[in-house]
Write a structure and sequence with these properties.
about 160 residues; alpha+beta; Arc Repressor Mutant, subunit A; Dna Ligase, domain 1; 2 domains; four-stranded mixed sheet; two-stranded antiparallel sheet; globular
Length: about 160
């Protein structure tokens, strides 16, 4: 990959970000990018493959694995570990964290200014400039109470 002067930003389309990183967009990669862009959840490889296969019967599972690996290595997507042996994927977008329900498998995305401030404070106290962070919290919902999360998406 070529060295780039300008870092892709999260407002650009996924394909624009790939091009900025000099990733050759084959038809299979364009299809995968489209499926990831359309996902309102955090699909695993099998789900991604099925969605691609529904759009193009010639889709290869090997191409899906290779492209996911390339996209992850390039910092375009993130792999999430739910602890169930299946990696889930999402396009890297604005900073957010995950609260994962260990009983239902639901992934709650949330943003917390207070948590962000604390993480930045910890990094500063330890002599680091924070470049990014990743937080995955696992838990069980308390009874039948409604989710009390704010600024959240549930998948």
């Amino acid at each position: 990959m070529k060295e780039i002067k300008e870092k892709p930003n999260q407002q650009q389309s996924f394909q624009e970000r790939c091009l900025m990183l000099d990733i050759r967009m084959t038809s299979q990669r364009r299809l995968l990018a489209s499926v990831l862009n359309e996902s309102n959840d955090h699909p695993d490889v099998d789900t991604i493959y099925q969605r691609c296969k529904a759009k193009d019967k010639s889709t290869s599972i090997a191409s899906i694995y290779r492209s996911l690996s390339l996209f992850e290595d390039s910092g375009l997507i993130e792999k999430l570990d739910m602890g169930d042996g299946k990696a889930r994927f999402e396009i890297k977008r604005t900073d957010h964290d995950h609260l994962m329900d260990v009983e239902t498998g639901q992934i709650h995305e949330f943003k917390s200014r207070e948590l962000q401030r604390l993480i930045e404070e910890i990094a500063d106290e330890m002599g680091f400039d924070l470049t990014e962070h990743r937080l995955e919290i696992y838990g069980r919902k308390q009874g039948r109470t409604a989710c009390r999360c704010y600024e959240i998406k549930i998948y």
